[in-house]
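re the bet — no i am not wrong, look at it urself. input seq straight from the record:
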Amino acid sequence: MDSMTRDKLAAYEQADQLLPERNRLWPLYGAGLENLGQDSRPIEVPMPAYGPDELLVRHDACGLCFSDIKVIRLGEEHPRIYRKMRSKPVTLGHEVTMTVVGVGQNLQDQYQIGDRFIIQADIFVAGVGYAYGYEIQGGLSQYNVIDQRILNGDDGNYLIPVRPGTGYAEAALTEPWACVLAAYELTYRTGLKPGGTAWIIGAPGIGAGTVPLYTISHGFDPASHPDRLLLTNVPASFSSWLRERAAALGVAVTDVDDLGNPPVKPIDDIILLGADPDVVEAVSHHLGHFGVMALVADRPMPRRVAVDIGRIHYDRWVYVGGMDPDIALAYQATPVRSTLKPGGKAWFVGAGGPMGRMHVQRAIQAHAGPGTIVCSDVSDDRLDDLCTSFGDEAESRGIDWVCLNPLHQEDYQAGMARFAEEGFDNIVVLAPIPRVISDAATHLAEGGVMNVFAGVARGTMADLDLSDVYLKNVRVIGHSASTIDDLRLMLNQAESGRLSPNRSVAAIGSLSAAKDGLKAVQEADFPGKVVIYPQIREMPLTGLSDLQDRFPTVYAKLRNGREWTVEAEREFLRLMLA
């Protein structure tokens, strides 16, 4: 490579370049890909001006996410969009890495030209969300201004420093990777919410025959208790005990006759005494964010229950339970486990997509990870690529590695028959399909956990046998997004070499290729992530395997001829920087 090209890359890395007069970006004017850009192209606008308390940044790489597709589909109906998009269009791109190219006068003792950052996209100021790539212009632009909302928001500074040697795609993809890490760090209450509202309901007929000696051994005492208690059809002896205890603790008690209209909403804890699916369906929607429904019974429910799986995912609802009449044990005897069981059996449903590959990679490389990993996907191409990418590595670590396509019913049923008796300790669902979620839950082992990672909308119902919650101690949990601490942790994992986000890259392109990239994400054309480089010369969306003919020197630096590396990226930028 000649010295001029090398110098161009060095100047770029140090941000030692003249800035252009124009800034290219992709505005989204409303719902639908037809409203992205003008004439299917990005537009040019003047370079943004920045003030004394602001930074000017250059976007170096931006991953495309299915969350971007949700904005394109919903437009102004998306919950993170608060404005009229026709007059104030949105610029997508929240998986982004950036370099400082301009520093406001008041910030010159804190920042300098060439500083590199990633950004925690969920930005809050006075409790209001201004997410990057949603309300704030995102990474599908060449340049942007970082203002005080980002530098001094509710959680402090939403920028996280990146080391100079870290790859641009590698840094950008720490954002989706942080969501994966966060899925295994979820914590749930192990008792009634202190200061909250608890509603105890007796199933119809609970008073007939012998009534269990219900009690609450922990969490309804001077050390910790809810502030308000609602009671419906509670057996007389337990009701008397609750009222006496509530009076001593100063807890307000209200009798509720109408399950559809409790006097307080939302509710933190709903406890059902007995096995009645009608009651579960009637009251579950009253749960608030992080709400818990505890099921205390010793016999199966007569049918499956329609459960709002979208609210398990987005609102972090959880159903816990047990057979012991001590309600505290429904929470504490089998705490919700979000981690993969060491040496256990893990099944990744819809494993062949970009996020599924991340979950599988993490499971293989995790300390004390599962002993068996089953990957299923309805695409032979994606499943074959997944197995080629990770199968040998899994087996070299002593993991029982299985790949199955449900569309090949005979092979699929034979493969799953191995696990029919004991079931799976962990099931991670990456396909937002209710019937798939319902079916997967039937394969949980005693004490097993299913994580609904796929982003199903609130109001999406799936039929689940909630008897398993108290008879088998299974748990169904869900997850969305990540915190700034999750992002810091993932960046540390990437920069220390423990987890490589570069292995997720499947296709690359210039800023002009972003629309094709979003179509590819929508249609699941690639098994991994699409990464856009806003600062390079025109380049169509290109899969890594297709680099061999066009960029042989870049292809030569891929790992095993298929995985993106920092070295391949630097060679690529040497050739393609504008």
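see?? The mean pLDDT is 95. told u. also The first strand starts at residue 22 and ends at 25. so pay up
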